[in-house]
Write a structure and sequence with these properties.
Strand content: 15-25%
CATH superfamily of the largest domain: Glycoside hydrolase/deacetylase
CATH architecture of the largest domain: Alpha-Beta Barrel
Shape: globular
CATH topology of the largest domain: TIM Barrel
Oligomer: single chain
Radius of gyration: 22 Å
CATH class of the largest domain: Alpha Beta
Helix content: 25-40%
Bound molecules: zinc ion
Length: 435
């Protein structure tokens, strides 16, 4: 089988990537991953762009959009969009959508869905790994922008497709979870991605990370990043814009628009804005920061991102007494939920879950349940997938993609990342070694 990318589509792709990078200093170049139809089911890539014999611009635009929807496995929406379009190109597109859908299968087992997570990406390793007291933390718990881009390209090449927790299970009228079918092209594998602590914490200032998320002049969510010389750049310098740009070029990497989960605390504000009313009560920009953060959060949700509570104060839920958890949950409700909107997702700080493999019971669970949380995410870096499917909640373990896990993998200690990528192929040579 040959990839069905027409010459015009290839030209459009080049033009599109130029567009994406214009107006900012491009991050280090990574070639776009190659579409490999022999490895995985065939995606209707040709549908992404209008066909040559499209009639008017309106129909051509509809065909293009339908193509993107179909490439992202939303065949029903794609077909609906083309209803009433009678041109030859629309007929061809409909036939291609039908053929593509016929090539899908229901994912075998929703409890076998992997979940990877990262922290904010290191844009400038020289400043992160500069020998100061924070270096070891960055080495252990973070990955660089370069490493993340390579991981994403490899995940796509291996047939992984981003899904959101709501694609795995939905809450019914009685508040119970019902597990849903995920229909993917044969050979593709669903994957949840999350990023923790998307606050651009005060302690990270000057250490080579993005400083915040914002909406650029084209209405897209990007990062602000200040380089070592103090020059500001707008672009993809952290997980959300990197994934957004990747899915823009590779719509088959996202299941019906899903991107991932962003887990947020509140004590330093959210998304790079100092929005905590208790911590920044004297800030003259408090109201405008809250307003800006709310706009960015809304735009992220429209782009397929889902927010999770990561507690207000990054507290250890296993070790903390009930009263402390109660106060923390109230602060998150007061300061963070109004900005991010409602969520039923909870990501345990430190991966410290309130229970082992036993079912949830007790006061802590009751508090979380009453606060509306139904999807709980811990950490287990030793198994490709772990899930507990309950009628009242879903628990899914996540694998940390970070320096500690890279080191564990390289020691051959219960390797798990090899299911997703090879550490030695993604690891940043700018990481100092302890040798
Ligand atoms: Zn955290």
């Amino acid at each position: 089988m040959k990839p069905r990318i027409r010459p015009r589509a290839a030209a459009a792709l080049v033009a599109a990537s130029g567009l994406i990078l214009s107006g900012c200093v491009p991050p280090p170049y990574i070639p776009p991953s190659q579409y490999d139809p022999t490895a995985i089911g065939e995606a209707p890539q040709s549908l992404v762009f209008p066909s040559q014999d499209a009639e008017g611009p309106t129909e051509a635009e509809r065909i293009e959009k339908a193509g993107r929807l179909a490439a992202g496995y939303d065949y029903a929406a794609a077909t609906k969009l083309l209803a009433g379009a009678e041109g030859a190109a629309a007929r061809d597109a409909r036939a291609e959508i039908e053929a593509a859908e016929a090539g899908t299968v229901v994912w075998e087992d929703n409890s076998k869905i992997s979940h990877l997570f990262v922290h904010s990406l290191i844009v400038d390793p020289r400043r992160a790994f500069d020998g100061d007291s924070r270096q070891q933390g960055y080495l252990d718990y973070m990955v660089t922008l370069d490493e993340f881009r390579k991981v994403v390209a490899e995940l796509h090449r291996r047939g992984f497709v981003l899904v959101n927790p709501a694609d795995i299970a939905a809450v019914d009228a009685n508040g119970k979870l019902t597990y849903k079918d995920i229909r993917l092209l044969r050979g593709r594998k669903p994957l949840v991605l999350s990023e923790d602590d998307v606050s651009y914490y005060e302690y990270m200032e000057g250490d080579g990370f993005a400083t915040r998320l914002l909406i650029d002049g084209d209405g897209k969510v990007k990062n602000e990043y200040e380089d070592a010389a103090g020059k500001k750049h707008i672009g993809a310098y952290d997980v959300a814009p990197v994934i957004d740009e990747f899915v823009e070029k590779n719509p088959d990497f996202s299941y019906r628009g899903a991107k991932g989960v962003l887990a947020l605390t509140g004590y330093n504000g959210v998304l790079g804005y100092r929005t905590s009313t208790s911590e920044y009560a004297d800030s003259k920009t408090l109201a405008s920061d809250i307003e800006a953060a709310t706009k960015v959060a809304t735009a992220l949700k429209e782009d397929g991102w889902v927010f999770a509570s990561h507690t207000w104060g990054h507290i250890n839920m296993a070790a903390s007494p009930v009263q402390r958890i109660k106060r923390d949950l109230a602060r998150w409700e007061a300061e963070v939920r109004p900005i991010l909107g409602d969520t039923d997702q909870f990501v345990f700080p430190f991966g410290a879950d309130i229970s082992g493999v036993q079912k949830y019971t007790g006061d802590k669970y009751e508090m979380l349940r009453k606060a509306g949380f139904k999807f709980f995410h811990g950490i287990d870096g030793t198994t490709a997938a772990w899930m507990q499917k309950d009628a009242d909640y879903l628990r899914q373990a996540r694998i940390n993609v970070d320096g500690l896990q890279f080191a564990k993998e390289e020691r051959g200690d219960r390797p798990v990342l090899k299911n997703f990528f090879e550490v030695k192929k993604v690891i940043d040579p700018r990481r100092p070694t302890s040798k």
